[in-house]
């Protein structure tokens, strides 16, 4: 038998240490986290699959437009003419490879009621201004769309400033306002679905949805996908939720006209994140509803509100890191003491679960390495005094990880299928190019880096977002710095050019032609308004 080398002795000692009661608890906890995620994604997949079955049953029953609405009679002219007016506000920043496709999917909506699209930019120097102006020219006369120059923000983030300027310019008769990010692809019937739900339940405060990330193949893009997936189960409830995504938010226009619940002042006066601020306001309303039933408002997410989100093909790891910093920086902004307490709870919970997820894999690697050393060098049991407990824990972790990845794959598969059904004219999405080995690595990388990013955000209180540096004080923006020479040239996820006139000439497409034809059919003319 071989004598123990110092390195081997250290490895085996470490393996024994990882069999202590505390270490065993951490490893079992890691298995529980994996299984909890798997169960959550399984439930989310059930909700999405149920909607797919409903659409397919509708098509088999003779409703060829089941991807638009449950009841085909809702498309009758007598129903369409009574639909409420909707203003769609899209804050823009920069121009990249996916923008034209995304914008076209948003303005070629099959919503039958009066609708306007307001693209809001910081200035005419933004590359998005020239690109979207050309797109609007292409659809001139068929779609009510215009570009609004908002100017520079001074009291809040530029995105929030653009949103509020868009609201100020919306049609006086608009009943609902829909805020959309420019980096997601919308389905033809999405606006109709959101509006129908708002009409059915006036107590809804905000309707939202969630993106389906389409990784580009880089590690950073898979980290983004993995980061979003745990939250996706919170948006697949089929109704009420506590989660809110700023990329898709439909609200009552009067809430902004009259600053109901402080939505305007809460955003304008030092607001950094639109969704977290509005979610905090919704939470305040919900917490007071036991004292007064007058303010019972909800956040809901329809089961069909999942939108393809293509990630830039050149996404670098540094841009992923800056995106992660922006996400953790959100927890440093707040509008009330209750909001601050909620953010601290989220901070600590995410910190604990992230490293609680990663630590068992490090322990499992030690157990496996120790077992291999015992086997390869033929150490005796007496020399190693190593039990099989550690290896057994590693095997259980592998089984739980496989179950988790299988559940994640199944949810992604179903959401891809749902998106293909909801956008029959769009290029088909596919699950074939997802690299699940990279996704597993991304799970470890993202969860390891999240606490580091959160601590960095907490102590720095500053972040660079699309070339603008925001500084927080007491949870609100108190200083905004702009310096093109020192800032990034591209946005994080979309890889959009932030400076210079980088526009491309839009080309005609089947989707665009269909959208213009349908828009001409159902859209009221400007002189009918």
CATH architecture group name of the largest domain = Alpha-Beta Complex
Structural Rg: 25 Å
Structural class: alpha/beta
> How large a portion of the residues is in β-strands, by DSSP E?
5-15%
CATH names the topology of the largest domain as Spore Coat Polysaccharide Biosynthesis Protein SpsA, Chain A
Give the % helix: 40-55%
Shape: globular
InterPro entries: Ceramide_glucosylTrfase, Nucleotide-diphossugar_trans
GO cellular component, one term: membrane
Keywords: Glycosyltransferase, Membrane, Transferase, Transmembrane, Transmembrane helix
Enzyme class: transferase
Describe this structure in words.
It is found in: Membrane. It comes from Gossypium darwinii. Keywords: Glycosyltransferase, Membrane, Transferase, Transmembrane, Transmembrane helix. Belongs to the glycosyltransferase 2 family. One of its GO terms (cellular component) is membrane. Strands 3-2-1-4-7-5-8 form a 7-stranded mixed β-sheet, sandwiched between helices. A 3-stranded antiparallel β-sheet has the order 10-11-12. A two-stranded parallel ribbon has the order 6-9. About 50% of the residues lie in helices and about 10% in strands. The C terminus is likely disordered. About 45% of the residues are buried. It is α/β, with parallel strands linked by helices. It folds into 2 domains: about 160 residues, no CATH class; about 250 residues, Spore Coat Polysaccharide Biosynthesis Protein SpsA, Chain A (Alpha-Beta Complex), CATH 3.90.550. Helix 8 crosses helix 16. The termini are far apart. The radius of gyration is 25 Å and the shape is globular.
């Amino acid at each position: 038998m071989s004598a123990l080398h110092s390195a081997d002795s250290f490895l085996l000692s470490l393996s024994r240490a990882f069999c202590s009661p505390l270490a065993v608890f951490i490893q079992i906890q890691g298995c529980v986290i994996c299984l909890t995620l798997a169960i959550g994604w399984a439930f989310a997949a059930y909700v999405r699959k149920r909607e797919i079955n409903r659409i397919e049953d509708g098509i088999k029953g003779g409703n060829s437009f089941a991807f638009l609405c449950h009841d085909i009679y809702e498309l009758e002219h007598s129903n369409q003419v009574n639909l409420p007016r909707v203003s769609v506000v899209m804050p823009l920043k920069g121009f990249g490879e996916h923008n034209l496709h995304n914008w076209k999917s948003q303005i070629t909506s099959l919503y039958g009621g009066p609708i306007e699209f307001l693209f809001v930019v910081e200035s005419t120097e933004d590359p998005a201004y020239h690109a979207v102006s050309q797109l609007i020219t292409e659809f001139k006369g068929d779609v009510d769309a215009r570009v609004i120059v908002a100017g520079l923000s001074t009291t809040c983030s530029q995105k929030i400033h653009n949103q509020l300027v868009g609201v100020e310019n919306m049609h006086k008769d608009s009943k609902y306002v829909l805020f959309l990010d420019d980096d997601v692809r919308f389905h033809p019937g999405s606006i109709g679905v959101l509006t129908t739900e708002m009409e059915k339940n006036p107590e809804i405060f905000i309707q939202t949805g969630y993106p389906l990330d389409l990784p580009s193949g880089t590690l950073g893009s898979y980290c983004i996908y993995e980061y979003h997936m745990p939250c996706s189960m919170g948006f697949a409830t089929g109704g009420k939720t506590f989660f809110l995504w700023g990329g898709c938010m439909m609200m009552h226009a009067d809430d902004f006209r009259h600053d109901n619940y402080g939505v305007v002042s809460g955003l304008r006066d030092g607001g950094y994140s639109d969704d977290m601020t509005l979610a905090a306001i919704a939470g305040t309303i919900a917490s007071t509803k036991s004292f007064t039933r007058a303010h019972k408002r909800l956040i809901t997410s329809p089961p069909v509100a999942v939108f393809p989100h293509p990630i830039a093909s050149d996404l670098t790891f540094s841009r992923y890191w800056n995106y992660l910093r922006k996400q953790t920086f959100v927890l440093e902004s707040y509008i009330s003491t209750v909001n601050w307490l909620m953010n601290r709870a989220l901070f600590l919970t995410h910190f604990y679960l992230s490293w609680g997820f990663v630590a068992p894999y490090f322990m499992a690697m030690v157990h496996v390495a120790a077992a291999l050393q015992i086997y390869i060098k033929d150490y005796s049991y007496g020399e190693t005094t190593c039990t099989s407990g550690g290896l057994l824990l590693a095997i259980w972790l592998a089984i739980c990880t496989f179950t988790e990845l299988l559940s994640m794959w199944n949810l992604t598969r179903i959401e891809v299928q749902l998106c293909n059904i909801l956008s029959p004219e769009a290029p088909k999405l596919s699950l074939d190019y997802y690299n699940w080995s990279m996704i597993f690595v991304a799970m470890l990388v993202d969860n390891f880096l999240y606490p580091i990013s959160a601590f960095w955000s907490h102590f720095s209180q500053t972040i660079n977002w699309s070339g603008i540096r925001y500084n927080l004080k007491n949870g609100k923006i108190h200083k905004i710095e702009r310096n093109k020479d020192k800032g990034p040239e591209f946005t994080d996820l979309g890889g959009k050019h932030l400076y210079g006139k980088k526009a491309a000439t839009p080309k005609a497409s089947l989707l665009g032609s269909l959208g213009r034809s349908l828009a001409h059919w159902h859209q009221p003319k400007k002189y009918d308004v």
